[in-house]
Amino acid sequence: MDTDAFYQASREANYVKVADIARNIAWTTPTEWGDMQITINLSKPEKDPRAIAAAAKAGPSEKADYIDPATGRARPCPLCVTEDDVACGYAKRLDLSGDAWALWYSPYAYYNEHCIAMSWQHRPMHIDRAAFTSLLDVVDALPQYFFGSNADLPIVGGSILSHDHYQGGRHTFPMEVAPMTEMFELPAFPAVKAGVVKWPLSVIRLQCADRAQLVDAAVAILDAWRAYDDASVGIVSHTGEVRHNTITPILRRKDGAYEMDLALRCNITSDEHPLGVFHPHEELHHIKKENIGLIEVMGLAILPPRVQQVMDERSYTRDDVGRLFARVLEDAGVFKWDAQGREALARFISTLQ
Length: 353
Ligand SMILES: [Zn+2]
Known about the structure:
HIT family, subunit A, about 25% strand, ten-stranded antiparallel β-sheet, alpha+beta, three-stranded mixed β-sheet, globular, about 30% helix
Protein backbone atom coordinates (compact mmCIF):
# COMPACT_ATOMS: atom_id res chain seq x y z
CA MET A 1 0.00 0.00 0.00
CA ASP A 2 1.31 3.40 -1.00
CA THR A 3 1.10 5.70 2.02
CA ASP A 4 2.50 9.00 0.70
CA ALA A 5 -0.88 10.65 -0.01
CA PHE A 6 -2.36 9.33 3.26
CA TYR A 7 0.56 10.68 5.28
CA GLN A 8 0.41 14.06 3.54
CA ALA A 9 -3.35 14.31 4.13
CA SER A 10 -2.90 13.38 7.83
CA ARG A 11 -0.45 16.25 8.25
CA GLU A 12 -2.62 18.72 6.41
CA ALA A 13 -5.68 17.77 8.49
CA ASN A 14 -3.55 18.28 11.63
CA TYR A 15 -4.15 14.67 12.68
CA VAL A 16 -0.37 14.65 12.94
CA LYS A 17 0.42 17.53 15.30
CA VAL A 18 3.19 19.01 13.23
CA ALA A 19 3.44 22.24 15.24
CA ASP A 20 3.54 20.43 18.62
CA ILE A 21 6.19 18.01 17.36
CA ALA A 22 8.35 20.93 16.25
CA ARG A 23 8.52 22.05 19.92
CA ASN A 24 10.22 18.82 21.00
CA ILE A 25 13.95 19.02 21.70
CA ALA A 26 16.06 16.39 19.95
CA TRP A 27 19.73 15.46 19.65
CA THR A 28 22.03 12.46 19.28
CA THR A 29 24.79 11.35 21.67
CA PRO A 30 27.60 8.98 20.67
CA THR A 31 27.94 6.01 23.07
CA GLU A 32 29.67 2.65 22.93
CA TRP A 33 26.38 1.28 21.57
CA GLY A 34 26.10 3.78 18.73
CA ASP A 35 24.52 7.21 18.44
CA MET A 36 21.59 7.35 20.85
CA GLN A 37 18.67 9.50 19.70
CA ILE A 38 17.30 11.67 22.49
CA THR A 39 14.00 13.56 22.51
CA ILE A 40 12.52 15.68 25.28
CA ASN A 41 8.84 15.42 24.64
CA LEU A 42 7.03 18.67 25.35
CA SER A 43 3.57 17.57 24.22
CA LYS A 44 2.61 14.39 26.10
CA PRO A 45 2.31 13.65 29.86
CA GLU A 46 4.50 11.03 31.56
CA LYS A 47 2.85 7.79 32.70
CA ASP A 48 3.61 5.85 35.87
CA PRO A 49 4.25 2.11 35.25
CA ARG A 50 1.75 1.19 37.97
CA ALA A 51 -1.02 3.22 36.28
CA ILE A 52 -0.28 1.40 32.99
CA ALA A 53 -0.59 -1.97 34.73
CA ALA A 54 -3.95 -0.91 36.22
CA ALA A 55 -5.24 0.34 32.85
CA ALA A 56 -4.32 -2.98 31.21
CA LYS A 57 -6.88 -4.69 33.43
CA ALA A 58 -9.65 -2.18 32.69
CA GLY A 59 -12.23 -2.92 29.99
CA PRO A 60 -13.18 -0.39 27.32
CA SER A 61 -16.23 0.85 29.26
CA GLU A 62 -14.00 1.99 32.11
CA LYS A 63 -11.97 4.18 29.77
CA ALA A 64 -14.82 5.97 28.02
CA ASP A 65 -13.35 9.38 28.70
CA TYR A 66 -10.34 9.12 26.37
CA ILE A 67 -10.31 12.12 24.04
CA ASP A 68 -8.34 11.56 20.87
CA PRO A 69 -5.84 14.40 20.44
CA ALA A 70 -5.96 14.09 16.65
CA THR A 71 -9.70 14.33 16.08
CA GLY A 72 -10.93 15.69 19.43
CA ARG A 73 -13.35 12.77 19.51
CA ALA A 74 -14.09 10.62 22.56
CA ARG A 75 -13.37 6.94 22.06
CA PRO A 76 -13.69 3.92 24.37
CA CYS A 77 -9.94 3.35 24.33
CA PRO A 78 -7.07 5.18 22.64
CA LEU A 79 -6.86 2.59 19.86
CA CYS A 80 -10.49 1.64 19.18
CA VAL A 81 -11.16 2.66 15.56
CA THR A 82 -14.61 3.57 14.26
CA GLU A 83 -16.12 3.95 10.79
CA ASP A 84 -16.10 7.71 11.44
CA ASP A 85 -12.28 7.63 11.69
CA VAL A 86 -12.14 6.09 8.24
CA ALA A 87 -14.79 8.45 6.83
CA CYS A 88 -12.91 11.56 7.96
CA GLY A 89 -9.60 10.24 6.59
CA TYR A 90 -7.89 9.77 9.97
CA ALA A 91 -7.69 5.97 9.64
CA LYS A 92 -7.31 3.54 6.77
CA ARG A 93 -8.55 -0.03 6.74
CA LEU A 94 -6.00 -2.83 6.55
CA ASP A 95 -6.89 -6.40 5.78
CA LEU A 96 -4.31 -8.76 7.28
CA SER A 97 -4.92 -12.44 6.44
CA GLY A 98 -8.67 -11.83 6.57
CA ASP A 99 -8.49 -10.03 9.93
CA ALA A 100 -9.72 -6.42 10.05
CA TRP A 101 -7.08 -3.89 11.08
CA ALA A 102 -6.61 -0.15 10.67
CA LEU A 103 -3.71 2.23 10.25
CA TRP A 104 -3.27 5.82 11.32
CA TYR A 105 -0.40 8.19 11.96
CA SER A 106 0.54 8.94 15.55
CA PRO A 107 -0.58 12.44 16.52
CA TYR A 108 2.68 12.90 18.46
CA ALA A 109 5.00 11.33 15.87
CA TYR A 110 8.18 10.47 17.76
CA TYR A 111 9.93 9.88 14.40
CA ASN A 112 9.26 10.17 10.67
CA GLU A 113 5.92 8.72 9.49
CA HIS A 114 5.28 7.19 12.92
CA CYS A 115 2.19 5.09 12.34
CA ILE A 116 0.10 2.68 14.37
CA ALA A 117 -1.58 -0.45 13.04
CA MET A 118 -4.33 -1.68 15.34
CA SER A 119 -6.80 -4.55 15.29
CA TRP A 120 -10.34 -3.38 14.60
CA GLN A 121 -11.44 -5.54 17.51
CA HIS A 122 -10.68 -4.39 21.06
CA ARG A 123 -8.53 -7.24 22.37
CA PRO A 124 -5.37 -7.29 24.53
CA MET A 125 -1.81 -7.16 23.25
CA HIS A 126 -0.32 -10.63 22.90
CA ILE A 127 3.09 -11.92 21.92
CA ASP A 128 2.73 -15.34 20.33
CA ARG A 129 2.65 -17.09 16.95
CA ALA A 130 -0.38 -15.06 15.85
CA ALA A 131 1.42 -11.82 16.72
CA PHE A 132 4.55 -12.76 14.76
CA THR A 133 2.32 -13.73 11.81
CA SER A 134 0.41 -10.42 11.91
CA LEU A 135 3.72 -8.58 12.16
CA LEU A 136 4.84 -10.25 8.93
CA ASP A 137 1.45 -9.46 7.37
CA VAL A 138 1.69 -5.78 8.20
CA VAL A 139 5.26 -5.50 6.90
CA ASP A 140 4.20 -7.34 3.73
CA ALA A 141 1.35 -4.84 3.30
CA LEU A 142 3.64 -1.86 4.03
CA PRO A 143 7.20 -2.93 3.19
CA GLN A 144 8.34 0.71 3.15
CA TYR A 145 7.96 0.74 6.96
CA PHE A 146 9.42 -1.20 9.87
CA PHE A 147 6.87 -2.46 12.41
CA GLY A 148 7.29 -3.64 15.96
CA SER A 149 5.21 -4.62 18.93
CA ASN A 150 5.53 -3.72 22.53
CA ALA A 151 5.90 -6.60 24.93
CA ASP A 152 2.66 -7.91 26.40
CA LEU A 153 3.47 -7.56 30.11
CA PRO A 154 3.44 -4.56 32.49
CA ILE A 155 6.78 -2.85 33.31
CA VAL A 156 8.45 -4.06 30.09
CA GLY A 157 5.49 -3.35 27.79
CA GLY A 158 4.15 -0.20 26.23
CA SER A 159 1.58 2.19 27.62
CA ILE A 160 -1.46 0.52 26.03
CA LEU A 161 -1.62 -3.20 26.80
CA SER A 162 -5.40 -3.45 26.42
CA HIS A 163 -5.56 -3.08 22.62
CA ASP A 164 -3.66 -5.19 20.09
CA HIS A 165 -1.42 -2.95 17.98
CA TYR A 166 1.94 -2.36 16.30
CA GLN A 167 3.94 0.78 15.77
CA GLY A 168 5.82 1.43 12.57
CA GLY A 169 7.31 4.09 10.37
CA ARG A 170 10.09 5.26 8.14
CA HIS A 171 13.06 5.83 10.43
CA THR A 172 16.46 4.27 11.09
CA PHE A 173 16.92 3.61 14.80
CA PRO A 174 20.32 3.09 16.44
CA MET A 175 19.53 -0.58 17.13
CA GLU A 176 18.94 -1.26 13.43
CA VAL A 177 22.50 -0.22 12.56
CA ALA A 178 24.06 -1.97 15.59
CA PRO A 179 26.15 -4.91 14.33
CA MET A 180 25.83 -8.56 15.23
CA THR A 181 28.81 -9.58 17.36
CA GLU A 182 28.26 -13.30 17.26
CA MET A 183 26.41 -15.59 14.84
CA PHE A 184 24.95 -18.91 15.93
CA GLU A 185 23.17 -21.83 14.29
CA LEU A 186 19.53 -22.75 14.77
CA PRO A 187 19.71 -26.34 13.48
CA ALA A 188 15.93 -26.70 13.22
CA PHE A 189 15.73 -23.60 10.98
CA PRO A 190 18.56 -23.80 8.42
CA ALA A 191 17.24 -20.89 6.33
CA VAL A 192 17.48 -18.51 9.31
CA LYS A 193 20.66 -16.58 10.03
CA ALA A 194 20.79 -15.79 13.76
CA GLY A 195 23.07 -13.55 15.79
CA VAL A 196 23.48 -11.47 18.93
CA VAL A 197 23.20 -7.71 18.42
CA LYS A 198 25.76 -5.44 20.11
CA TRP A 199 23.13 -3.56 22.05
CA PRO A 200 22.55 -2.80 25.75
CA LEU A 201 19.30 -4.75 25.76
CA SER A 202 19.56 -8.46 24.97
CA VAL A 203 18.59 -8.75 21.31
CA ILE A 204 18.64 -11.78 19.01
CA ARG A 205 18.52 -10.90 15.30
CA LEU A 206 17.03 -13.28 12.73
CA GLN A 207 17.47 -12.82 8.98
CA CYS A 208 15.45 -14.96 6.59
CA ALA A 209 13.64 -14.68 3.27
CA ASP A 210 11.22 -17.46 4.18
CA ARG A 211 8.18 -16.32 6.17
CA ALA A 212 7.19 -19.68 7.58
CA GLN A 213 10.67 -20.53 8.85
CA LEU A 214 11.13 -17.08 10.35
CA VAL A 215 7.86 -17.36 12.31
CA ASP A 216 8.74 -20.87 13.49
CA ALA A 217 12.19 -19.72 14.64
CA ALA A 218 10.72 -16.71 16.47
CA VAL A 219 8.14 -18.92 18.20
CA ALA A 220 10.85 -21.40 19.24
CA ILE A 221 12.90 -18.59 20.79
CA LEU A 222 9.83 -17.12 22.50
CA ASP A 223 8.82 -20.50 23.94
CA ALA A 224 12.36 -21.15 25.18
CA TRP A 225 12.65 -17.68 26.70
CA ARG A 226 9.23 -17.78 28.39
CA ALA A 227 10.24 -20.84 30.37
CA TYR A 228 13.84 -19.76 31.02
CA ASP A 229 15.24 -19.18 34.50
CA ASP A 230 18.77 -18.23 35.47
CA ALA A 231 19.01 -17.25 39.12
CA SER A 232 22.70 -16.39 38.72
CA VAL A 233 21.74 -13.29 36.67
CA GLY A 234 18.32 -12.61 38.25
CA ILE A 235 16.11 -14.03 35.48
CA VAL A 236 12.90 -15.47 36.93
CA SER A 237 10.39 -16.73 34.35
CA HIS A 238 7.42 -17.26 36.68
CA THR A 239 6.09 -16.50 40.13
CA GLY A 240 3.51 -19.27 40.55
CA GLU A 241 1.35 -18.98 37.43
CA VAL A 242 2.37 -15.38 36.71
CA ARG A 243 4.68 -15.02 33.72
CA HIS A 244 7.63 -12.60 33.75
CA ASN A 245 9.46 -13.31 30.48
CA THR A 246 8.41 -11.98 27.11
CA ILE A 247 9.80 -10.43 23.94
CA THR A 248 9.68 -7.05 22.20
CA PRO A 249 9.78 -7.95 18.46
CA ILE A 250 10.71 -5.63 15.57
CA LEU A 251 10.50 -6.52 11.88
CA ARG A 252 11.85 -4.79 8.77
CA ARG A 253 12.64 -5.64 5.18
CA LYS A 254 16.36 -5.71 4.48
CA ASP A 255 18.27 -6.72 1.34
CA GLY A 256 15.34 -8.67 -0.07
CA ALA A 257 14.72 -10.63 3.12
CA TYR A 258 13.09 -10.11 6.51
CA GLU A 259 15.11 -8.99 9.49
CA MET A 260 13.53 -9.60 12.90
CA ASP A 261 14.98 -8.34 16.17
CA LEU A 262 13.79 -10.08 19.34
CA ALA A 263 14.56 -8.16 22.54
CA LEU A 264 14.39 -10.51 25.53
CA ARG A 265 12.50 -8.96 28.44
CA CYS A 266 11.78 -9.95 32.05
CA ASN A 267 9.51 -7.95 34.36
CA ILE A 268 10.46 -9.53 37.69
CA THR A 269 10.57 -7.10 40.63
CA SER A 270 12.53 -7.32 43.87
CA ASP A 271 12.69 -5.53 47.21
CA GLU A 272 15.73 -3.67 45.91
CA HIS A 273 14.07 -2.82 42.57
CA PRO A 274 10.31 -2.62 43.19
CA LEU A 275 9.62 -1.15 39.73
CA GLY A 276 11.58 -3.91 37.99
CA VAL A 277 14.97 -5.60 38.11
CA PHE A 278 15.36 -5.06 34.33
CA HIS A 279 13.90 -1.56 34.39
CA PRO A 280 15.76 1.76 34.87
CA HIS A 281 17.10 1.64 38.41
CA GLU A 282 16.24 4.26 40.94
CA GLU A 283 19.39 6.35 40.45
CA LEU A 284 18.22 6.97 36.86
CA HIS A 285 14.58 7.81 37.63
CA HIS A 286 15.30 11.52 37.39
CA ILE A 287 15.90 10.85 33.68
CA LYS A 288 13.54 7.95 33.05
CA LYS A 289 11.14 5.95 35.17
CA GLU A 290 8.53 5.04 32.56
CA ASN A 291 8.37 1.62 30.93
CA ILE A 292 11.06 0.98 28.34
CA GLY A 293 8.79 0.31 25.41
CA LEU A 294 9.38 -0.50 21.77
CA ILE A 295 10.70 2.89 20.65
CA GLU A 296 13.21 3.20 23.47
CA VAL A 297 14.30 -0.42 23.08
CA MET A 298 15.47 0.67 19.61
CA GLY A 299 17.51 3.57 21.02
CA LEU A 300 15.22 6.58 20.70
CA ALA A 301 14.62 8.15 24.13
CA ILE A 302 11.30 9.87 24.77
CA LEU A 303 12.08 11.85 27.90
CA PRO A 304 9.55 13.86 29.93
CA PRO A 305 9.65 17.69 30.07
CA ARG A 306 10.99 17.68 33.65
CA VAL A 307 14.34 16.47 32.27
CA GLN A 308 14.98 20.05 31.10
CA GLN A 309 14.78 21.16 34.74
CA VAL A 310 17.01 18.27 35.83
CA MET A 311 19.60 19.36 33.26
CA ASP A 312 19.56 22.88 34.69
CA GLU A 313 19.73 21.77 38.32
CA ARG A 314 22.53 19.24 37.83
CA SER A 315 24.37 21.13 35.08
CA TYR A 316 23.95 18.21 32.71
CA THR A 317 24.97 18.57 29.10
CA ARG A 318 22.94 16.94 26.35
CA ASP A 319 25.61 14.25 26.07
CA ASP A 320 25.39 13.56 29.83
CA VAL A 321 21.70 12.82 29.33
CA GLY A 322 22.42 10.70 26.26
CA ARG A 323 24.93 8.61 28.20
CA LEU A 324 22.46 8.21 31.09
CA PHE A 325 19.88 6.97 28.58
CA ALA A 326 22.38 4.31 27.45
CA ARG A 327 22.59 3.23 31.12
CA VAL A 328 18.78 3.11 31.25
CA LEU A 329 18.89 0.60 28.38
CA GLU A 330 21.70 -1.34 30.06
CA ASP A 331 19.45 -1.74 33.13
CA ALA A 332 16.75 -3.16 30.84
CA GLY A 333 19.13 -5.78 29.40
CA VAL A 334 18.62 -9.25 30.88
CA PHE A 335 22.10 -10.48 29.91
CA LYS A 336 24.69 -7.85 30.81
CA TRP A 337 27.86 -7.30 28.80
CA ASP A 338 30.19 -8.50 31.55
CA ALA A 339 31.73 -11.99 31.55
CA GLN A 340 28.96 -13.38 33.76
CA GLY A 341 26.23 -11.99 31.50
CA ARG A 342 27.85 -13.25 28.29
CA GLU A 343 28.25 -16.73 29.76
CA ALA A 344 24.61 -16.69 30.82
CA LEU A 345 23.53 -15.64 27.31
CA ALA A 346 25.61 -18.46 25.80
CA ARG A 347 23.79 -20.91 28.10
CA PHE A 348 20.41 -19.61 26.88
CA ILE A 349 21.47 -19.84 23.24
CA SER A 350 22.65 -23.41 23.78
CA THR A 351 19.07 -24.33 24.74
CA LEU A 352 17.95 -23.26 21.25
CA GLN A 353 20.34 -25.69 19.57
ZN1 LIG B 1 -9.58 -0.54 22.07
